[in-house]
Write a structure and sequence with these properties.
- This protein is an all-alpha fold.
- The chain has 2 domains: 17-198 and 256-479, Growth Hormone, Chain: A (Up-down Bundle), CATH 1.20.1250; 210-255.
- It is built from 18 helices and no strands.
- The longest helix has 36 residues, at 16-51.
- The radius of gyration is 22 Å and the shape is globular.
- The two termini are 23 Å apart.
Length: 498
């Protein structure tokens, strides 16, 4: 019997230096995932010319990745809780490196989109599992908030390095070289993971939920297709899938999406904020990449340099936000984030920042501050107050919300821009700066609305009332889960008595 029993996992806290090393390894996985996306944005015009892609084709090179990622994040999180977080994290690194290699060899747009999906399968096993590892490694709330602040700073590093590295590689070697960057970092992270990251599992992991997984994939895929390709049929499929989730998931004992989590106002707010913030980021980067290179005529490297102020602000303010969350809670960071993101985008929506370089840079700086402040409170709120045993699932919901937001941001911004440019082609509007400014203005108003939503949701879900709902939800979850386990524990003893 002892040979069939899994080895007992160490419960003692790791030494501080080992904890910091685990954090660094997890951040390496975030770096390659984030760096890949930000660098690829700068390469879009080059890819468009070489692969003869349309605007919708460019959208799919981004959204095919984020769509698959969002669809599988919760499955990966729960699987990691069940079979081992280090095991799933290691598999994710292998798949992500393999997908990156295939992307660098893609002969066509269709092949690139397919290989991006392979990348995404691996990526789905990285970020939520890494966050779960961090949550279980840093158990002190203040120390965990600081660790999450470092995690958020890596997003800033990727934003700063991505456009510069991507622009340099596009000009010197070609856009395919962007995917080569992932290979050495991914392999180094793989070796360090095998050596230093301890294995951990949930004491009582969730069972697989194949029906829920199919419904989530169907919802996200059909919704994205409906937006990019303007298909009413797929919009109806998305609505049907959403209804199916709302009806089916509450009936399951262990659903893929535990709707009980959303009884907590902070958790619900973090989900909404993540969707809105990353929708704003995805749309903002997509529009500005096309503007700087296609309209302004900048090279990929110079376009990356133009966006450096935004990346630098994210890099500076992400760790500050982590410390602020640890000291004052999430409310100040969320309010500053929403206000700054809305104000930065408003310069484009109402004041045509594209026509003035100083105003353009101001918009980049203010938006970068807002985005830098938002990551730490999202992640901290999502995992705080939730059972540590389900850390993978809770972190996966937050990561899924981010990817859903980025997918929708690119889809909506691209669809609105395409419609505006098509309308301008049939009018007297010019095809240059004037035409692009007019076509992109509605998209910028939508992004400004996303920033305001972050502000409002942050204000409503971070006060005393919201904290009370989180505490009640935590107690209710513990009580309901304990009651669910009681019959299972009582049954063997009755059988033994018989």
């Amino acid at each position: 019997m002892s040979e069939l029993t899994p080895p007992r996992l160490p419960a003692a806290p790791l030494p501080r230096r080992r904890r910091l090393l685990v954090l660094a390894i997890c951040c390496m996985s975030l770096l390659i995932v984030s760096l890949d996306n930000t660098a690829l944005n700068v390469a879009l015009p080059s890819m468009q010319r070489e692969l003869d892609a349309s605007v919708s084709g460019l959208q799919w090179t981004i959204d095919a990745y984020t769509l698959v990622l969002a669809s599988l994040l919760m499955l990966s999180g729960s699987t990691a809780d069940r079979i081992g977080r280090r095991k799933v994290f290691t598999a994710g690194l292998v798949l992500f490196v393999l997908g990156s290699l295939l992307c660098s060899l893609a002969p066509s747009l269709e092949a690139l989109v397919a290989f991006r999906m392979v990348q995404a399968v691996g990526g789905s096993m990285l970020n939520p599992v890494a966050m779960s590892i961090i949550t279980n490694t840093f158990t002190d709330p203040a120390e965990r908030a600081r660790a999450i602040g470092v995690w958020g700073a890596v997003v800033g590093v990727s934003m700063a390095a991505g456009p510069l590295v991507g622009g340099l590689l596009v000009e010197s070697v070609g856009w395919r070289a962007i995917f080569w960057v992932n290979l050495p970092i991914g392999l180094a992270a793989l070796l360090l993971t095998l050596r230093y990251v301890p294995e951990s599992r949930a004491p009582r992991p969730r069972r697989p939920d194949p029906v829920g997984q199919v419904l989530v994939t169907l919802l996200l895929g059909s919704l994205t297709y409906a937006i990019i390709e303007t298909s009413p049929l797929f919009a109806g499929v998305a609505v049907g899938a959403l209804i199916g989730i709302l009806v089916y998931e509450p009936r399951r004992r262990e659903p893929l999406i535990d709707l009980r989590f959303f009884r907590s106002a902070p958790f619900s707010g973090a989900t909404v904020i993540a969707v809105c913030a990353f929708a704003a980021l995805g749309g903002f980067l997509f529009l500005n990449t096309l503007y700087l290179q296609d309209v302004r005529g900048l090279s990929a490297l110079r376009a990356g340099l133009f966006m450096l102020p935004m990346a630098a602000m994210t890099f500076v303010f992400a760790p500050l936000s982590g410390r602020l969350v640890g000291a004052r809670g999430p409310r100040p960071s969320l309010l500053v984030s929403g206000a700054a993101m809305a104000a930065g985008t408003l310069l484009f929506a109402a004041f045509d920042a594209e026509r003035s370089t100083p105003l353009l840079f101001t918009g980049y700086v203010v938006f970068g501050i807002g985005f830098g402040m938002v990551n730490a409170p999202i992640t901290n709120t999502a995992v705080s107050g939730m059972p540590r045993a389900q850390a993978g699932v809770a972190a996966a919901v937050a990561s899924t919300s981010r990817q859903i937001g980025q997918t929708l941001g690119v889809a909506v911004a691209g669809a609105v821009l395409s419609a505006g440019l098509a309308a301008a082609a049939h009018t007297t509007a010019s095809a240059g700066l004037d035409g692009f400014v007019a076509a992109s203005k509605p998209a910028y108003w939508i992004i400004t609305g996303c920033g305001l939503c972050v502000l409002v949701a942050g204000a409503l879900t971070s006060g005393a009332w919201a904290r009370g709902t989180a505490e009640r939800t935590a107690r209710r979850l513990a009580a309901e889960d304990a009651a669910a386990q009681t019959p299972a524990k009582a049954a063997p003893s009755r059988a033994e008595e018989a």
